[in-house]
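REQUEST FORM: STRUCTURE PREDICTION
Request ID: SP-0412
Submitted by: Lab K.M.
Chain count: 1
Length (residues): 230
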Amino acid sequence: MARYFELGDTRLAYKFERCEEVILIDAYLHVKPRVNPTDQQWMREFEFYFFAAGKAVTSDAVERINRVLGRIGRPAISFPETTVYEYGRNQDSGFKISERAKIRDELGSMEAGIRARLVEAAKADAQLLPPARVSYKEYFARQDEHRRASEASRMQIQRRALHAAVVKSALIAPKLRPEDVIMLVSETDNAELRERLLGRLSVPEILAVIREVQDQEIKNALVRRVIDRQ
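STATUS: Completed
RESULT:
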C-alpha cells in the first residue's frame, strides 16, 4: 500500500497507491471540520503539500489525523508497507494534484452510505497488495552496510597510498642511512621498490648492516647485491 522513505529532515513519509489515497482523503474530510482552531497549522501544511503540491504524506500528518479521528470516535487509519505500482511510483505532481482533487470532490459530494461502501472497497483493495520486496528498514540496512564497506575500502586505499608516498619520498631523499634503507625495505612487499631501495646501498654499507638484518629474504638480497658488484 505504501512505500516508506525519509525526507531531507529524516521524517518518515509515504508514497501511496490510489486506493490508499481514497482512505486518507476520506479520513481528512472527517477530521477537517473537527480540528481545533488553535491547531490548524499542521492541517494547512498537509493541504498544501498533499493537495496543492502533489507531494508525499509525512507520518506526522497521518498521526495528527489519527488523533482527531480518535477524539471523534472514528477508527484510526494505518498504512502497512507494501509494494507500490504505477500510481504510487508516478512522480508527476500535476497528475497527483488532479487525481487527489477528484477523489476529494467525489467523496465530499457522495451520500454517506455510498461513500462508506467506496472506502471499504478501497480498504479491501489495499489489503490485497503484496508486502514490499525490500522493506524500508532492509533498504537502509543494506545502504548502511554498503557505506561501511565503501568506507573501509577507502581507508585501505588511503593507507596504501600513504605508505607508497612515504617509500617514494625516501627514494628521492638526498641520502639515507643504511639502517633507514633496511627499515623501508622491510615495510614494503613491492619487489620494484625493494630493488630501488637496496640499490642505494654501497658494498661497505651492506657489510656494515647485514648482521643486524633479521629477515632472511632481505639478507639474501643484500648478499646478491654484494656478489653482483664484485
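NOTES: The radius of gyration is 35 Å.
Reviewed by: T.R.
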